[in-house]
Amino acid sequence: MKYHLIDSQLFIKNRKNFASQMRPNSLAVFNSNDIYPIGADSTMPFEQHRDIFYLSGVDQEESVLILFPDCPNPDFREVLFVTETNDHIAVWEGEKLTKEAAFKTSGISTVYWLQDLEKILFEMTTYCDTFYINTNEHYRASAETETRENRFTKWLLAKYPAHSVAKSNPILQRLRAVKDPIELDLMQQACNITEKGFRRILNFVKPGVWEYEIEAELIHEFIRNRSKGFAYTPIIASGNNANVLHYVENNQQCKEGDLILFDIAAEYANYKSDLSRTIPVSGRFTDRQKAVYNAVNHVKKEATNMLLPGTIWKEYHKEVGNIMTSELLKLGLLDKADVQNQDPKWPAYKKYFMHGTSHNIGLDTHDYGLLHEPMKANMVFTVEPGIYLPKEGFGIRLEDDVVVQEKGTPFNLMGNIPIEADEIEELMNR
Q: What's the whole-number mean pLDDT along residues 46-60?
């Protein structure tokens, strides 16, 4: 891995917190992700399942974690299985985790080779009454692909049908939503790398440059700072491309007078950042562009101030909509009749701002978090309002990642990344 070794105390604490929520005499299993094939002998780069990473720090394929806090055999209360390494594997694929390295990474003292999984698991099942299975219940989840976790669950329940079943996901949704200080430091590092990339392209962008050339500048800066690369597929949308919310082609030339909407960010140690900025190709906003830009920035600032302990996500978005409506009236994009006659289920402002304002962020870009429950301190949210104007040939979105505080306004992990229109212009014209 490119990132520095993470303090295993994070994973020890995470396992302790998870175990405290388990039923008596129960066992929980967590699997690594598959390595997904593309064709012939080609595969996608491996991405670890975030749950096993959260609980162990192990960033390697074919790993299995079992938690059994009430096991009468103390050696089986935390067990990690990893693929046995050898000289042949070391030559062809590079070194895999040894048992000693797995302990150093995870803080788990009982480590077996994967080949021993069924034998050890059988012994553990004779002591327990309940299996915690790990299903993906995120509100944006897609179930089109059967995962390694899914296949293991099928096998486990078929082999041991007399055991009760419970779900890990509700526990993880709550635990992962509230970040540990070590996690916040890792996310700050991801944001700092993102800042380096954004400042780099401010000095690179000019009329005639291509969107993919900007993408190349960003990936260069991210990787040279120990990131694997983009936290998600980057959006570099010049001109009217900005009005396609998930524009990812990044294959057009940037023209004089246009704006470029960026939704780009780095990851670090599997932790994500999520940044949106909009800049003028020529280094100067027109008066109209700046007016819309400042309106979006105002909504963002007001929305940020509402991310407080006790806030309900749905109510928060409704209030952000009211603030956006006010700004759209000032810009002449809506009139009073539009507002008076609006459909409550699709308010008038949605014509220009059709997506949500905030989502949880952490190990996943759209991270775990139960949105019907009140916000808590140390949750991390994006704040990303936008105004999209296809008829005027531009769209603007601004986004930062902020940490909910026990008291006061959130802490902005991206507070050092330029956002004010005047500062953007100044930096682009040095």
A: 97
Contacts of 118 (CB under 8 A, 6+ apart): none
The candidate with the shortest Cα–Cα distance to 124, out of 81, 92, 87, is: 81
- For β-strands 78-82 and 64-67, DSSP reports them as antiparallel
Q: How many angstroms separate the CA atoms of 252 and 58, rounded?
A: 40
What's the pLDDT tens digit per position in 125-149? 999 999 999 999 999 998 788 999 9
- Contact in structure between 302 and 325 (CB atoms under 8 Å): no
Q: What string of DSSP letters covers 26-37?
A: EEEEEEPPP--E
87 pLDDT more than 80: no
Q: What is the distance between the alpha carbons of residues 218 and 194, in angstroms, rounded to a whole number?
A: 8
pTM of the predicted model over 0.85? yes
**DSSP type of residue 60:** -
User: Mind listing the pLDDT tens digit for each residue in 255-291?
Assistant: 999 999 999 999 999 999 999 999 999 999 999 999 9
Amino acid letter, 386:
G
Do the beta carbons of residue 242 and residue 289 sit within 8 Å? no
Give 210's contacts (C-beta < 8 A, 6+ positions apart): 251, 252, 253, 254
**Taking the CB of residue 424, how many other CB atoms lie within 10 A of it?**
21
Name all domains of the chain by residue range, CATH numbers in brackets: 9-177 (3.40.350.10), 181-428 (3.90.230.10)
Two tokens at 171?
């526990």
